[in-house]
Amino acid sequence: MNFNIRPATTMAQSLKRLSSNLQFSTNIQESLDQLLQLNAPLTLLRQYNIKMLATRYIMHPTAKDAARRLVAICNRLEKSDVLTPTTNANGISRKRPNTDAIEDLISCKRTTPIMSAPKSKSPTATKEGPSQRHQSISTQTNSEEQKKREERMARDFQKRKAVEAARMKDAEEKRRQQLMAIEEYKQQRLQAIRFGGSDTKENQKPMKPKGKRGNCFKCRF
């Protein structure tokens, strides 16, 4: 299936509709396939919670492959977004430290005495070192928390699925027992009617017609 959806408004509307389908469990397989074909940006995927909704169906009997592919795509986009360097107002990268001053310092140490080594020309790089380390640690912490949250959601989904399956099994067992009881009652009634009818027929004896008594007088003469 090819979906030629390019404008941002159309893509946003499609994502809204597909996320609603996944939220209410309607057209799951078709919705996941359309999301895979959309190639939507990470901002829209986050806006409509596509990754969280797709995680619900990673154990689905028919749509689990598409759901896992969609979750993998979201993870890859998030990872690339974290690794993409960004610049601040001064034009200095926040993700990648400025190594020009460090390379200059190393070259000076190789050619001149240590005491005459020039100071770093870029004090901003040394000032931003702790903030960069803090940002890296916070990014790693956020990714670990997100992974734990996804695992917890998957476990909760499995628990809910197991409880629902047990409930349906119990209901089916009760229904089967009720049907068996009804069928047994019907059989007993039929047997009672059959045996009762035969007994009444056997017990009923045909009545012999009574003969008419005539006026018989014996002649004494």
UniProtKB/TrEMBL annotation:
Residues 207-221 have a biased composition (Basic residues). Residues 109-125, 132-143 have a biased composition (Polar residues). The gene is Cnig_chr_X.g24736. Residues 109-174, 193-221 are annotated as: Disordered. This is Uncharacterized protein. Residues 144-174 have a biased composition (Basic and acidic residues).
